[in-house]
């Protein structure tokens, strides 16, 4: 009928009009919808980030202890919500997401104690239960007693042995020395292995309980007297005790791979794994001195010696001419308890002007159009199937740039984590002010996050990634983590995946370094940490990401390009493994203000670096992720495998040929993609074409995920950055498997696992290369 033709023509015209509006929407430059990074806005943000405001943020954040789930932690949740909802400097929206998670606390009624007990059961000596109140801030009612979170309760008693760092090799050395470990109490020092691993290794050898201390040689450059330590310097006082989580995994222990929300399945406590198997308690080095300097037995190896002012011996038991009788034993009484507590993440969002294309601004949604999303295709781009009467909504999907830090601390937490939160609040204030004035809106959405319960095992960020797994994997461009913003004030330190190197370098070249002289942050950084690149020459070293902060679930679980940014110390001037008051009651505002960053210029430098990176990732037309920078990493991993494992693998009829081919394929496709981007940047490219390329850049990291690669690990699925226990600096699965198979016969299960890990890496690299090819090519 005639009217159906008219209607059809009308619908067709409407569709074409809608398509034209879409293309015009993304092709016409607008102030709040600029096609590329606005350098004026960038300069404005750099100029408005205020060191004094960061200082005042830190003063407020660290004013009281704010252990996860405590009343003060909840107060800070409300502070963040208030700031991010401020009518003049707030964001588009802010919301708290609460999870019920399993945390561990010492008993207020029965404090944990460490005593030296005589043969008749009388207490001869007791270690300090609290840290010395040197500034009036260490004795408050909200200062949590030092403890090992998730260590089980118990009261083991036995002869004392010194086990260095508590590694498996350390306990084997004690056995080699003829020391019977069954029923003993092991004194260990921080370092060498993770906290929880010390108890796991000890239990394997029959040890009944573990003590952990910080040796002045590892944190204080050997200094230990009160006159040489805080509040007279940045060094740890003798009574300082490093708290921490001893849980093996990250995330809520009861809901692995599920968000800790009411509807989720929870494990029975009896089925939870990853807790220390024996009672464990941290102590200060003044108490460790009383124990260690009275030990009997063989002199400890030279590499086990420290700075407590005596010769370290192995034990077991005390020497007869010391302060305690030779038959005295050490009793470790731990009364920790597990509790379900509510812990919140706080999210603040600045909506993107172009990506997402929200209902109020998206021309498709404004026309009331609909679209049907088809299942994901092998090609790295969102896919829309168009039906009669529908309009393409390809560009209506969000793209997120995430920036986060945790909020909770063990005590006042001025450095860890409040230095990072102070920077986060200042950066969100500056961007929020521009937003509220109508001066600026980013191309892509920016999400600011304050994570809860990180100190107990990255719980808040992990629950977030579990709850929004699919959405985050599909839409997140990158994750920026600023936890401890300032360890010290010498130089920048960045850890990250290779594609973020380019944007970090671009940002730091444009920002002046704090201190005298006129160096950029980049030029100052290269003086302290550098490497020789076959492509770029001498460049700053970008460290790799482990699992020490909230970037871990984003890179290992979701495969999102990530980075961690901080200012740190000059390694040539200190041997400290971390800033000395880490996780103690001495990590206070005055500690930062007097010793770490007087004037807060390093905090400001971190804010400017993070701010520049956020703007470049959220506003640039072409995503500033350079996938070809992965080629150097892959080539170095390959060379290490060839040089250090090649002959061994050949003996077992395992060829590295497929791996060589896979690396070469990746290198070629990465270079070709870079060339296509360079060609497009010289012209006036179709926005849809740019979007396809950007999706390839964004999704590359996901191609390195294999959730079945490491079944013995939890959340680790990135085949390039999983934990490496093998000695060869190559692909971690291959390195670890070869280390386990080294002394086994050909045809064993261990060598079958080597072959499996090699296949996993080859498949991942071939998939990554395929992702970088033009979308139309399979």
Automatic annotation (TrEMBL):
Residue ranges of the TM segments: none
A GO molecular-function descriptor: aminopeptidase activity
Domain PA positions: 159-244
Keyword annotations of the record: Aminopeptidase, Calcium, Disulfide bond, Glycoprotein, Hydrolase, Metal-binding, Metalloprotease, Protease, Signal-anchor, Transmembrane, Zinc
Gene3D superfamilies (alphabetical): 3.50.30.30, Transferrin receptor-like, dimerisation domain (1.20.930.40), Zn peptidases (3.40.630.10)
Alphabetized InterPro entries for the sequence: PA_dom_sf, PA_domain, Peptidase_M28, Peptidase_M28B, TFR-like_dimer_dom, TFR-like_dimer_dom_sf
SUPFAM superfamilies: PA domain, Transferrin receptor-like dimerisation domain, Zn-dependent exopeptidases
Pfam families the record matches: PA, Peptidase_M28, TFR_dimer
Coiled coil (UniProt feature): none
One example of a Gene Ontology biological process annotation: proteolysis
Compartments (UniProt record): Apical cell membrane
Physiological role: Aminopeptidase with broad substrate specificity. Has lower activity with substrates that have Asp or Glu in the P2' position, or Pro in the P3' position. Lacks activity with substrates that have both Pro in the P3' position and Asp or Glu in the P2' position. Lacks carboxypeptidase activity. Lacks dipeptidyl-peptidase IV type activity.
Similarity section: Belongs to the peptidase M28 family. M28B subfamily.
Protein name: Aminopeptidase NAALADL1
Upper taxonomic lineage: Eukaryota, Metazoa, Chordata, Craniata, Vertebrata
């Amino acid at each position: 009928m005639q009217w159906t033709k008219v209607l059809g023509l009308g619908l067709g015209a409407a569709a074409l009009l809608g398509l034209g509006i879409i293309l015009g929407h993304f092709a016409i430059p607008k102030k709040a919808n600029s096609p590329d990074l606005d350098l004026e806005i960038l300069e404005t943000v750099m100029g408005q980030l205020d060191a004094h405001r960061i200082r005042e943020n830190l003063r407020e954040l660290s004013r009281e202890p704010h252990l996860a789930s405590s009343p003060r932690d909840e107060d800070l949740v409300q502070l963040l919500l208030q700031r991010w909802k401020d009518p003049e400097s707030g964001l588009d929206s802010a919301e708290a997401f609460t999870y019920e998670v399993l945390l561990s606390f010492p008993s207020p009624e029965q404090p944990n104690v460490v005593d030296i007990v005589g043969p008749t059961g009388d207490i001869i000596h007791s270690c300090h239960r609290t840290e010395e109140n040197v500034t009036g801030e260490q004795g408050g009612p909200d200062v949590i007693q030092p403890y090992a979170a998730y260590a089980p309760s118990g009261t083991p008693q036995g002869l004392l042995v010194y086990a260095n760092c508590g590694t498996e090799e350390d306990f084997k050395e004690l056995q080699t020395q003829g020391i019977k470990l069954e029923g003993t109490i092991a004194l260990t020092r921080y370092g060498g292995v993770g906290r929880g691993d010390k108890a796991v290794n000890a239990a394997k050898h029959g040890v009944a309980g573990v003590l952990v201390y910080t040796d002045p040689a590892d944190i204080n450059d050997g200094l230990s007297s009160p006159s040489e330590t805080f509040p007279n310097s940045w060094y740890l006082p003798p009574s300082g005790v490093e708290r921490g989580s001893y849980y093996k995994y990250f995330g809520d222990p009861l809901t692995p791979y599920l968000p800790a929300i009411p509807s989720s399945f929870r494990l029975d406590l009896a089925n939870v794994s990853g807790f220390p198997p024996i009672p464990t308690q941290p102590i200060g080095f003044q108490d460790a001195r009383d124990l260690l300097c009275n030990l009997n037995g063989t002199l400890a190896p030279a590499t086990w010696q420290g700075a407590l002012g005596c010769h370290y011996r192995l034990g077991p038991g005390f020497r007869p001419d010391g302060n305690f009788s030779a038959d005295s034993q050490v009793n470790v009484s731990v009364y920790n308890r597990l509790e379900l507590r509510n812990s919140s993440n706080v999210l603040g969002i600045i909506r993107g002007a172009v990506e997402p294309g929200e209902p109020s601004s998206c021309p498709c949604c404004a026309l009331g159009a609909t679209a049907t999303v088809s299942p994901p295709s092998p090609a790295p781009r969102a896919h829309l199937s168009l039906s009669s009467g529908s309009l393409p909504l390809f560009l209506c999907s969000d793209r997120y740039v995430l920036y986060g830090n945790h909020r909770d601390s063990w005590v006042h937490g001025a450095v860890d984590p409040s230095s990072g939160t102070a920077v986060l609040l200042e950066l969100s204030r500056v961007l929020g002010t521009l937003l509220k004035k109508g001066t600026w809106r980013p191309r892509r959405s920016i999400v600011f996050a304050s994570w809860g319960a990180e100190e107990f095992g990255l719980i808040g960020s992990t629950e977030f990634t579990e709850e929004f797994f699919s959405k985050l994997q599909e839409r997140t461009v990158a994750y920026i983590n600023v936890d401890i913003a300032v360890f010290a004030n010498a130089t920048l330190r960045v850890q990250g995946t290779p594609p973020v190197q380019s944007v970090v370098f671009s940002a730091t070249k444009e920002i002046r370094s704090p201190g005298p002289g006129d160096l950029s942050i980049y030029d100052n950084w290269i003086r302290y940490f550098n490497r020789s690149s076959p492509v770029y020459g001498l460049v700053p070293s970008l460290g790799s990401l482990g699992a020490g902060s909230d970037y871990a679930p984003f890179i290992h679980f979701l495969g999102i390009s990530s980075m961690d940014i901080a200012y740190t110390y000059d390694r040539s001037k200190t041997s400290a493994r971390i800033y000395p008051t880490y996780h103690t009651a001495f990590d206070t505002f005055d500690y930062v203000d007097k010793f770490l960053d007087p004037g807060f210029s390093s905090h400001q430098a971190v804010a400017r670096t993070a701010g520049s990176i956020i703007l470049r990732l959220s506003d640039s037309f072409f995503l500033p992720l350079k996938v070809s920078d992965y080629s150097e990493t892959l080539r170095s991993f390959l060379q290490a495998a060839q040089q250090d494992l090649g002959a061994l693998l050949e003996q077992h009829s395992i060829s590295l040929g497929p791996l060589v081919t896979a690396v070469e394929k990746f290198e070629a496709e990465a270079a070709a993609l870079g060339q296509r981007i360079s060609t497009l940047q010289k012209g006036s490219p179709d926005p849809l074409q740019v979007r396809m390329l950007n999706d390839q850049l964004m999704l590359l990291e996901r191609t390195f995920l294999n959730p079945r690669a490491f079944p013995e690990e939890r959340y680790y699925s990135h085949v390039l950055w999983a934990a490496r226990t093998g000695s060869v600096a190559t692909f971690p699965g291959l390195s670890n498997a070869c280390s386990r198979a080294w002394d086994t016969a050909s045809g064993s299960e261990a060598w079958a696992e080597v072959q499996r890990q090699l296949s996993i890496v080859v498949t991942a690299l071939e998939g990554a290369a395929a992702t970088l090819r033009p979308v139309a090519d399979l």
